[in-house]
């Protein structure tokens, strides 16, 4: 097809500019929301969050193609540059960065860029896109017009676009399976396997910046307190580790590992201190202040591990004691635990605390 023909076809099929722009805005918002939400999903029943995120990502590619085609001269023609063009270009770069890393990740590329996994870079682009898109929108704001959104044809076209995106994703998955890329043995979360047993089998990961000095086991003690009849301080030698549990750790940076963890069952610990009747939650606190809270029934079943794959937990993996919370994402598996606090309510502030605990 000649360039001219292509342009005519493009001009004919492209939706109204405001429809494209506002759809992009809404879809990016939904992507940021579903991407962040996906961080909290660790059980297979939550798969729709991930599928939605992927399908909407493909839909954005199509809409962004229309958009970039439409504005190409404003960007390529230097005489038409305005101060706001810089913001527009940066917004496009962040969007293309998020899309390309997302697609390479889905296609099975499993590489690190400096310290970060490809998936973490994707998250970085996505988060950078939020302020850029808001700035871009404030410089180039055009209110949505009813006429651009009305009509059956618009609705049908849009539905067609979404269906086409889902089909593209299916074909992509088929290609992964046929080509046996790293894309085929991943979890529903997109995470890729790290095989083997023990400390060396999987990476040491920090959620943001937690990096405490190695802990001296002889100076360390675990305190169990809060809504309990008899709080205790347990030295390492007094832990009596006798529980064992196979559990899957799934990090939001895109890898998972199945390990045999051993240590103490939190339920045994709670019996030992005699948790009170109105207790509903259990908070696990790290020496760094990092913390996470589980509902008490779930907590009973969790393990505070001293060992992984038969080896003493290394410092990097949270030794002397770390939380093993099956079904939860990795960032909730608190490392370097030195306090267990029985409570009668959840802990919304934990979200903020996990982000800043590494800075002092
Ligand atoms: N105290 C503390 N616990 C933490 C973290 C952290 O930064 N600080 N990182 C979490 C994250 S994001 C993951 S994926 C797991 C990683 O455990 P690993 O380093 O043993 O692989 O620990 C979690 N526990
Ligand atoms: Mo993680």
Automatic annotation (TrEMBL):
Transmembrane stretches, start-end: 20-40, 52-69, 81-107, 113-134, 155-171
Key words of the record: Membrane, Transmembrane, Transmembrane helix
Metal-binding recorded as keyword: no
Domain Oxidoreductase molybdopterin-binding residues, every copy: 214-351
Pfam family, one: Oxidored_molyb
Domain of life the protein comes from: Archaea
SUPFAM superfamilies: Oxidoreductase molybdopterin-binding domain
InterPro entries given in the database record: OxRdtase_Mopterin-bd_dom, OxRdtase_Mopterin-bd_sf
Keyword check for Transcription regulation: no
Entry-linked PANTHER family: PROTEIN-METHIONINE-SULFOXIDE REDUCTASE
The protein's name: Molybdopterin-dependent oxidoreductase
Organism: Natrinema longum
Lineage: Archaea, Methanobacteriati, Methanobacteriota, Stenosarchaea group, Halobacteria
